[in-house]
Amino acid sequence: MTRTEQERLAVLETKVEHLNRQVDDMSRKVTAMHDLLMQARGARWVIIAAAAVGGFVASKLPALASWFPFPR
Questions:
Q1: Helical spans, DSSP H, in 1-72
Q2: What confidence tens digit (pLDDT) does each residue in 22-44 have?
Q3: How many Å is the maximal CA-CA distance in the chain?
Q4: Cα–Cα distance measured from residue 29 to residue 36, given in angstroms and rounded to the nearest whole number
Q5: Would 72 be classed as within a structural domain?
Q6: Would the pTM of this model clear 0.70, i.e. be above it?
Q7: Distance CA 49, CA 34 (A)
Q8: Domain tally, the chain
Q9: What sign results for the dihedral spanned by CA atoms 50, 48, 56, 68?
Q10: Residue numbers of the domain that contains 31
């Protein structure tokens, strides 16, 4: 093997090592995103319940406002 081929092979090995690190990093990020989405899936009912309670309270605000004297 000539010196040029050895240098090219060394550069290629370095690039492959860098690509492997990038793929590992992306794999960790995808796993973290998947875990987050699985948690959000369980929280869906909490969000729906909070929206229902918020809507109920918002519908009762005019009745509550009549109890307090507001300047007109």
A1: 3-65
A2: 999 999 999 999 988 888 777 78
A3: 94
A4: 11
A5: no
A6: no
A7: 24
A8: 1
A9: positive
A10: 1-67
